[in-house]
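User: I'll paste a sequence; please echo it back and then give the predicted structure.

Assistant: Echoing your sequence first, then the prediction.
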Amino acid sequence: MQPREIVIGLSADESPALGNIWRITAKKTDFYLDPLGQAGTTFHLSVHGPNNSFGGHRFHIRVDHHTVNGAKEQGYFVEHSVPRKGFAFDGQQVAARAFLVARIRWTWHLQRPRFRAAVVSGAAPELADHQMGARLSEFLPPNHAWDIDIVVSYNEPYWPHPLGSLRDNARLGPLRNKAGLWLTATSYRRFQKNYPTPEELCLRLPGADEEPNRITCGGPGPDGANGMYWFVETITSRELIEASGTKPEGVAG
């Protein structure tokens, strides 16, 4: 059976999931990317292919306001500046008719024993017949991150580094939707100094006397609407979250 979903999570050896588990779904002429967190699916990224309404493609981040209100009532911190109709962006073109749409990043801090109790989100899900998945379980060196780069292409699947991704068993997918678009996901372990997280999505670590709290930060990179969208799974302090008057775009924890 051709898989219709990809499920990805971070762990540390045999630990439960650290940070959100992410799901990528092919549905009709679209693809959807959303986190499977305890607060529910508060936001999702959608990739719309050609259909009866328009030609070409459209990349779009949207917030589910009903779910956000419910999450806040349960005590979760959710702040964002995504417009009510969503935020449209172009993606980063990496080849003819191929676009780097999004990057999911888990920072190395999530695997540190010091923060482990604060970042566990639950057990890894059991995969159904229509799903494929990966558990990123090897320990990251200090100041490294685990990235999943998501590319959408026309006509055929596109792998950004075809030889390396095949050699390293780093490929997930491809998924195909009814519009004929393909989606691939490739995993990378990167040194953050060489591949920095956008500054506005970097929150400081908790101090010695503060309570650690996991958080997901989302927003466009340095190219704004002309580039890809970032989702960063990391750790900060509960005190900073509660005291912050200026929140990064699309922050949930």
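The chain has four helices and 18 strands. Residues 138 and 188 are 12 Å apart (CA to CA).
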